[in-house]
Amino acid sequence: MREFIERAQAVVGDDGRLPLGGMADWEVFPFEREGLRVRPLDQYVVPEPDRRKAPEDCKTCTALGRDDLVLHRGSRLGVIRPGGCNLVFVANVVSLSHEMLDDLDDEGHVELGRLIGRTYAAMKALEGVGNVHVNKWENGTGHLSVTLLARPEGVLQLRGSNLAAWADMLPPTPADELGARAVLVREALANAG
After folding, report:
1. pTM above 0.90?
2. How far apart are the C-alpha atoms of 13 and 15, rounded to whole Å?
3. To bridge 16 with a disulfide, which of 40, 48, 102, 115 should be the other Cys (CB 3.0-4.6 Å)?
4. Which stretch of 59-73, 130-144, 151-165, 172-186 has the lowest confidence by average pLDDT?
5. Which domain holds residue 151?
6. CB-CB contact of 94 with 147 (8 Å)
7. Is the distance from CB of 116 to CB of 148 less than 8 angstroms?
């Protein structure tokens, strides 16, 4: 919507940058306020470019082909995990074919809700998990992708919407720990409802 970008551009400073919002004052914001700069706004682009990848170049299709990364397969949707991550655990509820959220019918929505809820419960039950955050970020591959991020218990600074930013800066979680947790999540999803 052009009005959205025009409203944003109306409040930029002389340097073309938006001011820092209130999030920079949150105790869970991962950056110190001093020295933090907001990027200049990019140009308005309509129509937006198609970001979907061909199946042979698609990371989601590749993950769906690896048994060690697949946690569950349903009729239209599945649950996969990345090969590595920097949190206690991360899982993605994804479409098995190149479908986006817009493409799902009512049955697909029911399956999506069920898989998100069951994956959330399985991850929340893992030892050392304080909370599980759920986000929809369709990653440009052409697949629906709902990401579930497990926040480590007791690490309150990682609460909230900046968990993904923190995760990018944290050291990798050992593969054997992620593999053991994947077994537990896979079993919980197999035994659910």
Report:
1. no
2. 5
3. 40
4. 130-144
5. 55-191
6. no
7. yes
